[in-house]
Amino acid sequence: MRHDIEFDAEGALLRGWFYEAEGATGPAPCVVMAHGWTSTKRMYLDRFAEVFAASGLSVLVFDNRGWGDSDAAPGKPRHEVDPWEQVRDYQHAITCAQNRSEVDPDRIGVWGTSFSAAHAFVVAAVDRRVKAVSGQAPFISGRATYANLARVDNHVVGPEVFTADRRARAMGEPAATVPVIGNDPGELVGLPTQDSYEWFTHARAELDPSWPNEVTLRSLDNFYGYEPARYLPDITPTPLLMIVGREDGLTGGNLAASAYRTAAEPKRIVFLPGGHFAAYTGAGFLVASQAARDWFLEHLSP
Fold this sequence. Notes:
The protein has nine helices and ten strands. The protein has helices at 45-54, 83-98, 115-126, 142-153, 159-170, 194-206, 217-224, 253-260, 282-299; strands spanning 2-9, 12-19, 28-33, 58-62, 103-113, 130-136, 177-178, 215-216, 240-245, 267-272. An eight-stranded mixed β-sheet has the order 1-2-4-3-5-6-9-10, with helices on both faces. It has a two-stranded antiparallel ribbon with strand order 7-8. Helix 1 links the parallel strand 3 and strand 4. Helix 2 (83-98) packs across helix 3. The chain is globular.
């Protein structure tokens, strides 16, 4: 069974779904989930949640603040991505899950994908309520990803652009925005890779027609300074699963594989054929969802 939920995250009302664990006769383990950079829960997260719930795990899925069904905080724009706000919102979601009678508060897992995989790793390193973590196609390094994306379309946004936006916002002007995706090589977009364009175009048409193809300019500045790989060594003793696309050219499958070596046991890495978006459909989805399911069942057992 799936229920609509909402919870307060220090002034921002976040909304999502809660899935009851199938076959549970008492409080069950719970997996807390959110989507990646600019994505919403309707973009395939229900499919992962259904796999987890069918195996006896309860699941709490939520939209990041300012995206999908969730509100932005008062005075803040919608469609902005701040990694540290999103990390804290994972922690608020964990608290929401712990306060539900269907959940065993001592058996909480965290799952993330792409940008939210980075958050899942950070939360697992700093919040010992997390007893297992799984991150697929993880964002590893802001600087490295920024450099990769700049090479794709040759748009290098210098600090003066971010400075001008900050000064304008401080004077009461609306936040500057850019498209998330686009097919005009002369247009600055957040995610300029071809597979990003194809994935978001399909997901918008088929899964979430209300998805806005815009993100604040400051969101690019925010991810440039985000280096979640530095937290990987601190996740231990929490069990860590990393799922990586071998040909991931967006966040970098090579970056993920290298960063994985810095984490201590217990850990496991699973490689998928394909690129950044391989885990959402087809054979990639089967491998990724089942690997995460089995990881949580193994490490969230009583």
